[in-house]
Amino acid sequence: MKTERELMDLCQYAVSVGQKRGANAIEVQCDSRIDLDAGIELGEVNSVSRSVGTEFAVRLYLGKRMGSAFTNIPTREALDEGVSMALSAAKATTEDKDWQRLPEPRTYKEIPGLWEEAVIKCEPDKVVRLTADMVKKAAAAEEGLIAAYGGSGTSIHVMAYANSSGTAVAQKLTSAYLFLAGVAPTGASMTPLVQSYDVKRGLQLDMDRVVDEVASNIRLCKKKVKANSGKFPVILHPQAYSELLQYTLLMSVRGDNVARGKSKIADKIGDTIASPILTITDDGTTPKGMHTSVADDEGVPRQRTPIIEKGVLRSFLWDTYWGNKMGVKSTGNAKRNMRQGLLEIATSNLVVGLGKRDIAEIISGVKQGYLVRNLQGAHSSNPESGDFSIVGNPAFLIENGELKGAVDGLMLAGNIYELLKNAVETAKTPHYLEGTIGPEVVFKDVQVVVKE
């Protein structure tokens, strides 16, 4: 793997070539990765692999005509060709009259803990042993539990970005993960698939927690219970609500959708759109966030952006293009499709504010309601209206303060803005997921439909 300096030299070389050949603006991003993974299939470690790759995305402008190109060959010759291809593409396109300029140089702050040397030294036999230990522990944790799939692995990620406005930034990141998805037989059928994972910058992974979460939820799933339709309190695990938010609220706070008139809350800055107990922030600088980085994919420093603060809508998320168009600054939320060279607006780490009680105490006070750990069908939600109809799987009945068992085919229906206003409590302990840091959230009066 090339160093940050070597990758930056190649990016800056391509920028200089583009300028010499007539581009009035050009940016080049490089992503270089080494991924090591061991996989599980039906209770066995079935694979181990190491992949190495380096990608360069070139995007440039001739006047207001944009062209892009991609190469995975880290040489000056390949970048010469990439610049030529991008120039040819730009000559064949029409003008984008809304385009203004690339990001200007800015100051970057240091974020500790994004790189751990132990990950660099991790060898394939270690991830194989780690994965095998997880399979063994899972089988012993609950009768009949089968590790359907999952695995463990590490990633080493080095990035560089340079543009013709003078922006230049390089950064390096490491990560490691454990992932377990389990099922178990229940007579003539199987339990729903239950998943848990741990992901960190280093190798201090909590296997016991991952296995216990899967085993304890499988144990509950073996107890099939009947439930009632109607309006009830529903507790959503962050794995569930993060997916629902992705296809509803978060689509509406993207600056491009605001500018295009596709956001229901485009004119609601300063208005109350959620319960006062809810604070939701996009934070690309928190050291524990797995989407934390020094800069986004166009070299803009990451930042902490309050989206909802005590129920009040505070900000939208922007990249440079849409920020320039609407007269606001980028919030550091640009994400690049490397092969297409195009950018979109995306969250970094979604952080949900904490409450005062732990989840066990919250559950103990629920007379009748449901706990939903995961969702199916969130992608079918309406991003403009916020309407949703989704399946909770697994979903558990809470009765007189106790988790009684799993409910098959439980559906939740409603509107995301009504749901957010019905939030009544958040738990006090956060879960650190890949793109979300947050506790369970309790909502009142959620429309629940179950099989009769």
Description:
By secondary structure, this protein is an alpha+beta fold. It has two domains: 4-217, PmbA/TldD superfamily (PmbA/TldD fold), CATH 3.30.2290.10; 225-452, no CATH class. It is built from eleven helices and 25 strands. It has helices at residues 4-20, 76-91, 117-120, 124-141, 207-221, 238-246, 249-252, 255-259, 320-326, 359-364, 416-421, and strands spanning 25-41, 44-62, 65-71, 146-163, 168-183, 185-186, 189-190, 194-200, 230-236, 280-283, 304-309, 312-313, 334-337, 342-345, 350-352, 368-372, 375-376, 387-392, 395-399, 402-406, 410-415, 423-426, 431-432, 436-438, 441-449. Strands 9, 16, 17, 18, 19, 20, 21, 22 and 25 form a nine-stranded mixed β-sheet that branches. Strand 6 and strand 7 form a beta hairpin.
List keywords for this structure.
single chain; 452 residues; alpha+beta; PmbA/TldD fold; 2 domains; nine-stranded mixed beta sheet; six-stranded antiparallel beta sheet; 24% helix; globular
